[in-house]
Amino acid sequence: MIAAPELPSDFPFPQDTDTRFSSDTDFSEEPDGRTAVTVSLAAKGKGGKKGKKPAGEKGKGAKGTGRLNGHHQENGMENMMLFEVVKLGRSAMQSVVDDWIESYKTDRDVALLDLINFFIQCSGCKGVVSGEMFRNMQNSEIIRRMTEEFDEDSGDYPLTIAGPQWKRFKTSFCEFIAVLVRQCQYSIIYDEYMMDTVISLLTGLSDSQVRAFRHTSTLAAMKLMTALVNVALNLSINMDNTQRQYESERNKIVAKRANDRLELLLQKRKELQENQDEIENMMNAIFKGVFVHRYRDSIAEIRAICIEEIGVWMKLYSDAFLNDSYLKYVGWTMHDKQGEVRLKCLTALQGLYYNRELNTRLELFTSRFKDRIVSMTLDKEYDVAVQAIKLLTLVLHSTDEVLSPEDCESVYHLVYSAHRPVAIAAGEFLFKKLFSQREPEEEGAPKRRGRQSPNANLIKTTVFFFLESELHEHAAYLVDSLWECGAELLKDWECMTSLLLDDPLPGEEALTDRQETALIEIMLCTVRQAAECHPPVGRGTGKRVMTAKEKKTQLDDRTRITELFAVSLPPLLAKYAMDSEKVTNLLQLPQFFDLEIYTTGRLEKHLESLLRQVREIVEKHTDTDVLEVCSKTYHALCNEEFTIFNRVDIARSQLLDEQVDKFNRLLEDFLQEGEEVDEDDTYQILSTLKRITAFHNAHDLSQWDLFTSNFKLLNTGIENGDMPEQIVIQSLQCTHYVILWNLAKLSEGSSRKEDMVTLRKQMRAFCLMCQRYLTNVNTAVKEQAFTILCDVLLIFSHQMVSGGREHLEPLVYSPEDSLQVELLSFILNHVFIDQDEETNNGQQDDEAGKIEALHKRRNLLAAYCKLIIYCVVEMKTGADIFKQYMRYYNDYGDIIKETMSKTRQIDKIQCAKTLILSLQQLFNEMLSELGHGFDRSSSSFCGIKELARRFSLTFGLDQVKTRDAIAMLHKDGIEFAFKEPSPQGEGNPPLHLAFLDILICVPEMLRFMTFQMALQREDCWLPLISYRNSLQAGGDDDTMSVMSGYSSRGSSVRSKKAKPTAATKESSSSSEVWQQSLQTPVMMPSPHLTSTAMREPKRGRDDSYMGVYPLPHDHSQVTWMLAQRQQEEARQHRRGTGLMEEDEEPIVEDVMMSSEGRLDDLNEGMDFDTMDIDLPPSKNRRERSELKPDYFDPASIMDESVLGVSMF
């Protein structure tokens, strides 16, 4: 057994990287008086030191292959051969290892040096360990030298380089170590030289600060440990066999006992025991020298390697490793912050729980860490959650008493998860828990079918579970979760129909109405899953190609579905004909039929029965959902490819003839009665119109001329004003379908001119009718008219002629201005309203109603925004929508943002004008509410500024592409700010000057050279001051970033600009400063002081200069600027010319051009766990072995919850 808490007395446990020593180093008294340690893995009790050969003995191999003047060839292929062979992976690893063993037997120093260089090169280090270094330098010195020769230009090394070759390299690397130990397990690993040197080297490398060394050596050490575990396991088996042979021989009678055989067996057992002790020493050395430090390394990949391998050890050699001393490492690491490490913990535990024989040893671990495993089912990493559920399934499989009902319920609800792998894993858990126990069938007895089958109770259990999941009403998700593990149960449609149709057995409780509804819904979902072979909406990852086996299964299932339900569906419809919910689900089944079976299976009489039942349902029901599903059923059965088409078409035509004739007759009576219409007539015409509208959605009813009758009905409603709202809504929808079906026929290209003219007249008349209904007193009618009107305008817009449909150009219709105004007014009055307003009006008194109302309003807004996006209405109408962005962000923010994005893609300039228009509208509204003397810190004004900032974020970061749009936005904003002069006369700021504060919030992507004017200190001028400063601050840098495209053309503004004379200096100052702002930036020292003489051109400017975009030359709008400038000049003249302006703080970016960033992966700081080994420096190896286990603080790599985990 491996004693985990002890350190081997013969293993060099390092105190620090600088105190690592090679395995053959002898120490005398050190200068500081400390007793030196002989670092070796020599076997105990072997009499004398074993290890490396003396220098003289090593020299004997100097003349061998690969030696030159007593040194290893550093530039030849010998030192690269092993690495190159493993990297290429073309040779069998067995032969590679055998070749190395032969070289080791010839000269073990040369071979071992090759092995050392192999590990160094596998780490990505370009350095080579020479023979002299191997003989004379300690391990720490060698590692330090290799660190210095490491390539710092790249953080990649073989284990992290992408590509198929390097993925194969990792596999070959691990295989090489396993084969090496396997081939050396009988002799070489016990020579106290090869394994001692390799373990010492890997332990030293695993403590390196260089990630590549640490990662590679940890992987090598863990794989070496796994190989040694296999050797130890074989030794244990051999020892047991030898012991049994010895006991058997010793128990024989004296006459038959072979004493020489007993002596041989005794000697063999002794040798095996010594070998096992050696292997245990090696494993203890690796475990405590590498694992206990690296399983909490700062790099997640290294931690994952350790946890993965310890799981392998516990599974391979459970007698030695499967105990709490090793399981605690896995339990602690389940709290790791990285999902990759948590995933390795779960996969390691799955291998243990899969073996039922090991369950007794896992009881304490299960009780201690069960809660953590259950909580991991909700892990943010879906892969971890899946494996956690699978682990709980194995725990459930091993023992049914460990998991409490609360634990199981936390997994049950995951069957409704949107992530399919999680849902499938939860479905397997649910199936194990609820459906694993079936009634045993007696041998030789006939197979029970229907409600007597073993699946009957399981199907009932599924129904009960679905009904108890009150928070989830999606049976399709439950079926999809159980499909992979319980497809046989879910496809037992015969049992389901039997439970619905047959009477219950004596003593059996019948299904309630609610349970029957749930069973029908589940049955429909299973049929859809079998026929379509793809998961429900929200769980699919795209279409995938089905295999031949899956296609065959799909065809077989559709055949079974048709054969079974073609017979059983009519009686099911007859039984539940009056239940709308059940009928709606049952009538969807024919959509998944293989209609050819009706003919080949001679099931025509069942088809007649089905058509008869559907007709009766249409005549009995007025519910829209039922009627629409009846229409879809006729549409599915009316397939011209099958012989049953004529029969179904005749039945459909008869039904529609009766309904249309009835509607026309009722409509005539309805219009003649006028105001004396009774409720019965209203109900009759409404129900008939509902049936016709539902069928018109899926069937072309153009032959019955429904447009005339419906238009007459709508016109009467407009004239009288007392038409029932549902009749108007259904009539609008039916007329809409008439126009769409006529357009569909014209789109085929074989249309007549008369049909084109007729459709054009009908469409325009219908649009006018819908526009008139926008003013109806009933909200539902207005919403229906608005939605249909938006759809018609979008369909008949200029977009319809694209795609080779130029012949439809006469049908293109553009809404008039009056219609656009009414549509916008409807949106503002019915969409942008508060919830409280609706509540005060007596509507939406519950949360469900509020959500439904919000959903309806979102659809209305989306319908109008589509008109903006497709240029059906003018883009400027979007200003009234955009200005609501902040106020209604939670309700419609995503729709408005997407609309802004689409409009910007269409026309950046027009989009910018629309955005500034929306800000201007809000500003005017604020002025009308607060007056011109408003407080600029008010919530209204701050809200407009925040909206401007949000608008600015939509332009993106590409300043060159957005410059024109930003310029137009600023131009319109400046014009708006100076548009209205002050009523107090000249010298006073304009009324809208505060709007410049809003423009400041737009990104500073464009710099304007504004008036350099005398500034007064009154607060009324602050918007102009702030706006000017925002445009000038950092102007050189930002202007250069915008104008970089011009400078890249090679034009130098400065070279073309002549130095101005003193006489013209003031007049040309504005142009000069603008030109100077375009100079190519260079590395220049930032001046601490700037005189007014140098800044003077920045102020002096021609009176007519109005910035980049000239303002209107209105004397009343600019005289106040001139007056302010003259006053400031007079004031400056009185002060004198020796004054200095305030110095501007230069903004300097301190760029550290060091190699620190390149060393992030190599030198990851000095606070590694390995650098803080909590061992006293005065302890020698024997004293260290008596130290307590290393209790550590895992907070640096683990969640806070792990801090409460105690040791076993």
Provide an overview of this structure.
Residues 1-74, 1038-1100, 1163-1187 are annotated as: Disordered. This is Cohesin subunit SA. Residues 1040-1053, 1060-1072 have a biased composition (Low complexity). It is a single chain. With 1208 residues, the chain is an all-alpha fold. The chain is built from 50 helices and two strands. A two-stranded antiparallel sheet has the order 1-2. α21 (493-501) runs parallel beside α23 (548-575) and α47 packs across α48 (1092-1099).
Set out the fold topology.
Blueprint: H1 55-58, E1 67-68, E2 71-72, H2 78-88, H3 93-106, H4 108-122, H5 131-136, H6 139-148, H7 164-184, H8 194-206, H9 211-250, H10 259-294, H11 300-316, H12 318-321, H13 324-333, H14 339-353, H15 363-375, H16 382-398, H17 405-412, H18 420-435, H19 455-468, H20 475-490, H21 493-501, H22 513-532, H23 548-575, H24 580-586, H25 596-600, H26 604-620, H27 624-637, H28 645-673, H29 679-698, H30 706-720, H31 725-747, H32 753-773, H33 779-795, H34 817-830, H35 835-840, H36 847-869, H37 879-882, H38 889-906, H39 908-930, H40 939-953, H41 959-977, H42 995-999, H43 1022-1032, H44 1035-1042, H45 1044-1047, H46 1053-1056, H47 1069-1076, H48 1092-1099, H49 1115-1135, H50 1181-1184
Antiparallel strand pairs: 1-2
